[in-house]
Amino acid sequence: MLSQKMKDALNEQVKVEAQSSQVYLAMASWAEIQPGIDNVTSFFYRQSDEERQHMLKLIHFINDRGGFASIPNLEAPMQTYPSINHAFKSLLEHEIMVSQSINNLVELSLNEKDYTTHNFLQWYVAEQIEEEALARTLLDKLELIGDEKSGLYLFDKDILGVMVVSSNDAGQ
Ligand code: FEO
Question: Which of 38, 82, 130, 156 is paired with 7 by a 20 to 30 Å CA distance?
Answer without folding.
Answer: 130
